[in-house]
Amino acid sequence: MRLYPLNAEANQAGALQAVVMDGMNGRGSFTLAYRGHNLSGEATRVGPEYPGFGALIGATLGEPQRQVSGRRGIANAAGAGTHAQCEYVLTAPGQGVGACLFSDGARYQMHFGQ
To answer: Are 20 and 29 in contact (CB under 8 A)?
Structure first.
């Protein structure tokens, strides 16, 4: 999956490559390199009742929160004093979009697919 910068903080690091290894049970590992540090964590699919889902996507992309359709998920990674939190929506099998917010204020749009 690729993460594309949306603000000045993210532009300093540029586009990023992240890896999600799907455990085929609704959970997987989430890793990426950010400013010379390796971050690792997990990705988990969540149901439509998951509280607050969409707020991060809305805030990161500068759009009001709205209903999103498709299978949803969250991903978090941390390392070396930095962390990232992400939300994503599967738009087709193996494809999706989302947004990530890093602890230094960097905002990214996420794209993934086969």
So the answer is: yes
Residue 90 resides in a domain: yes
d(CA 103, CA 85): 8
Give the pLDDT band (50/70/90) at residue 45. Answer: very high
Does residue 114 form part of some domain? no
> Would the pTM count as exceeding 0.85?
yes
- Other beta carbons within 10 Å of 63: 11
Whether 83 maps to a domain, the answer reads yes
Count of domains observed in the chain: 1
29: Cα separation from own chain's centroid: 12
Three-point CA angle 70, 18, 76, nearest 5°: 65
